[in-house]
Design brief:
Length: 492
């Protein structure tokens, strides 16, 4: 790299955090603001969608941090969130029985015939109510929900009173809902729960300051299933997706490197020289701000020419001995995308982190920070992580794709169906679904192989090509041991 200690940059990459969020509060130095995310965090945006690893749980947790909200207010006032905003949690990855009902409580309430909208209205009222409100005297969610059902006028007055107070104070009150995949084990119940949540969000739109922000995975956002109630469009039209276009993935990388606990000062200087040249004396670009961390120069995010040049100073210009193998800047995101081309930032960082570790072990004397063969192995590692995530979310996908090990894609779907038949994959899955042994099973399994194919397409695992054949993107293909002529080698 131009003017950088290669081994130091390699170590900085190898020490990058993996980006996995379990609801823990991030520090300010961990917070990076893609432009589309700023829009999503506005109080009036009721529904935020994103793929696994896009940042839904990260923001659910980060927004609870007053310092993060103050930073947003100072830098991005149009986001309309500040340290003065009241944030509460209505459902999330961390159990909190006093704040919201857990999965088993929700299941019991639904079995007893409680309308989902009333459950979430009770949660919303519980968060808004002050300690002297009669609702606060109820000790469990069954009695709280019953109180809301039996005293609708008092609940209306509660919301009206608190909304007027908040408006006078100039503050928003936002209740955050995340991890709805943990609310149920089968699709029908989950859709009911989400539909009720959206109905409650619609109710809250009539107030000026009381809001809900609902984080959903893109596969949960089936408008036909969750939007079949009056005026649903008023909620769904506010939806914003947490996107990660290529330039923001690299922006995140620069942010992580420039704020790493080790080597950050020398890394920032190296990035500066690679991006802007030795003739640029704007050393303020290298300084940390008043919050104690470095803010990535906007041109290092928005200008693709500068971004590509900077990254290639780390990797070299080619993915092999010549340009025919592709260019690292585009090659890595292209091989990590799903069928929609969407890349998880977690996979992107994991690929580079693994590539740095592999270069340390296998190509210690290489002139660049990352060796192109190590980058390929880094993509293999990222694929394994994505496969593990897919297995966690949808065990049935893992079972069906494992049965395709060794096949070469693209291929005719008839060949896939034949392989499933040979190994009784669908028959075994149907038996497990019948006995409720599968979490969130394929919704179209009763339609046979063609129905399951549609489910895999909706999860962006299968791609139907123009000639009818099935392709599987590299980020899944490699981890499941599927081949592709000329592609990255699958994991054996």
């Amino acid at each position: 790299m131009n003017g950088v200690d290669v081994e130091r940059m390699r170590s900085a990459l190898a020490e990058l955090p993996d980006g996995t969020s379990h609801g823990e509060a991030p520090s300010l130095r961990d917070v990076y603001f893609p432009q589309s995310h700023l829009k999503a965090l506005h109080p009036d945006v009721l529904v935020v969608t994103g793929m696994r690893g896009a940042g839904k749980t990260f923001w659910w947790s980060a927004l609870q941090n007053e310092a993060v909200r103050q930073l947003m207010d100072q830098r991005y006032a149009r986001a309309k969130l500040s340290g003065n905003t009241v944030l509460r949690t209505g459902f999330g990855v961390r159990p909190a029985a006093d704040e919201y009902p857990g999965k088993d409580v929700l299941k019991r309430l639904l079995q007893e015939g409680t309308e989902p909208r009333l459950i979430w209205r009770a949660v919303q009222a519980w968060q808004v109510a002050r300690q002297d409100d009669p609702l606060r005297c109820r000790d469990d969610w069954a009695s709280r929900t019953a109180y809301v059902r039996e005293h609708p006028e008092m609940i209306d007055r509660l919301f009206e009173k608190e909304d007027a107070r908040l408006n006078e104070e100039g503050r928003h009150f936002v209740v955050l809902y995340d991890a709805l995949d943990r609310a149920a084990d089968e699709w029908r119940a989950m859709y009911r729960i989400i539909r009720g949540l959206l109905q409650t969000a619609l109710d809250m739109r009539s107030y000026r300051r009381i809001r809900m922000k609902i984080f959903l995975r893109t596969d949960q956002f089936d408008k036909a299933e969750i939007g079949d109630f009056p005026d649903a469009s008023k909620v769904l039209s506010s939806t914003v997706e947490l996107g990660w276009p290529r330039h923001e993935l690299y922006g995140l990388l620069w942010h992580r490197l420039g704020n790493a606990e080790s080597f950050s000062k020398s890394v920032r200087a190296a990035l500066h020289r690679s991006a802007f040249g030795n003739g640029d004396n704007e050393w303020r670009r290298l300084m940390v701000d008043g919050h104690g961390f470095w803010r990535v120069p906007r041109s290092l995010v928005s200008d693709e020419t500068i971004q590509r040049r900077t990254f290639h100073s780390i990797t070299g210009g080619w993915m092999g001995k010549d340009r025919r193998r592709g260019f690292p800047y585009t090659w890595i995101p292209n091989h990590l995308g799903d069928t929609k081309g969407k890349v998880s930032p977690r996979s992107f960082i994991a690929a580079l982190k693994s590539a740095a570790e592999d270069t340390k072990d296998q190509h210690v004397g290489h002139g660049y920070t990352l060796h192109y063969d190590s980058i390929k192995r880094g993509v293999q590692r990222a694929s394994e992580i994505r496969v593990a995530e897919l297995k966690e979310d949808y065990p049935w996908v893992d079972r069906l794709l494992k049965s395709l090990h060794g096949m070469v894609t693209p291929c005719d779907f008839a060949d896939i169906a034949e392989r499933w038949a040979e190994r009784d994959a669908l028959e075994r899955l149907c038996d497990e679904v019948e006995f409720m042994d599968v979490k969130l099973p394929p919704s179209r399994i009763e339609e046979g192989p063609d129905g399951v194919r549609l489910d895999l397409e909706s999860l962006h695992v299968f791609l139907r090509m123009h000639d009818g054949r099935v392709n599987v993107p590299d980020v899944f293909r490699i981890g499941y041991g599927l081949g592709r002529r000329g592609g990255v080698r699958p994991v054996q």
